[in-house]
Predict the 3D structure of the following.
Amino acid sequence: MASIHRKIFKKLNPKQKKTTAPPPEKVGKDYWLVAILLLTIFFLIVGWSNFDNINRALYSALIVSLGSTYIRRHANLNETQENLVDRISLIAMICAIILFGLEIYYKFIV
């Protein structure tokens, strides 16, 4: 009799599911990303007079790519802004790769 009572009680009063969203994932501190970003900025500042235009553009593209990666990971952006930052990061990295290939071409082939 008690088991039937419990079954009826459970059917009449079901447990409510929690509707709260899970807590957002904690993003790491990204010490390596910040260190590489600062090192790249340092190299660009120190070597500005020694670099040609291709190297200046290469380091600038790397700074933009690393900076946008850091922003994407740590800023609270909506979906549109996140897509824009992703595209900027991707375009800057592609430009850096192309400029690196161009620098290798000029240095060793031409």
